[in-house]
Amino acid sequence: METKGASVVITQQIKAGKQSAYEAWLAEISTICKKAPGFVDWQIIRPIPNLTYTYTVIMRFSSIDYLRNWMESSERSRLIAKASPLFTHDDQYFIKSGLDFLFSPEHGKANAPVRWKQYAITLSAIYPIATVVPLLLHPLLRYLHVPENRYLDGFGASLLIVFLMVYVVMPHYTKLVRHWLYR
């Protein structure tokens, strides 16, 4: 059994007026999914009410084998069949292991780049951020009269660094270097 974690991103387009039924179905499938071997985490990005109808579900499992077992399980198949009248089309998903989701190309049209390129890009992005964030954050915390505490300071810096990496830097940085990254 593989030891590194794996994620799946599922998008489901819901028919207008079927959101309540879908939410009830989500509650049912989440209860079963969370009991599956290797389950780690589940997040739902809901649509904007009366404007969009796409739900995005992100699940993480402790290994790609556990994730595939869930995705191919009879329980999930039965529940997807039960909810299919609510969908405008079949649910779509892609599976990624480790931090590959940071390097997923738009529309999933290519495989993740080789690991050494992922390492080089991540290091080149995180080093400057990990250097600058504490230099800016710690004086700000002292200015706001937050007492100096290396654990709290470290947690605050880590929180900001991870946020910047996942939501700000990597989406733009990987687009900037995509020709080299995916070559």
Structure description:
- This protein has helices at residues 19-33, 64-71, 74-83, 115-143, 150-176, 178-181, and strands at residues 6-13, 39-45, 54-61, 92-97.
- It is of the alpha+beta class.
- It folds into 2 domains: 6-98, Alpha-Beta Plaits, CATH 3.30.70; 115-181, no CATH class.
- A 4-stranded antiparallel β-sheet has the order 2-3-1-4.
- The chain is globular and about 55 Å long.
Classify the fold: give the CATH topology of the largest domain. Alpha-Beta Plaits
The parts where pLDDT drops under 50 for at least 5 residues are none
Beta fraction = 15-25%
Mean pLDDT: 83
In which order are the strands of the major sheet placed? 2-3-1-4
- CATH top level assignment of the largest domain: Alpha Beta
Largest sheet: 4 strands, antiparallel
> What is the chain-wise order of helices and strands?
EHEEHHEHHH
What integer value in Å does the Rg equal? 20 Å
**CATH architecture verdict of the largest domain:** 2-Layer Sandwich
Q: Report the structural category.
A: alpha+beta
Number of helices: 6
Integer count of domains = 2
Number of strands: 4
Helix share, percent:
40-55%
Shape: globular
Task: Quote the distance from N terminus to C terminus.
Answer: 30 Å
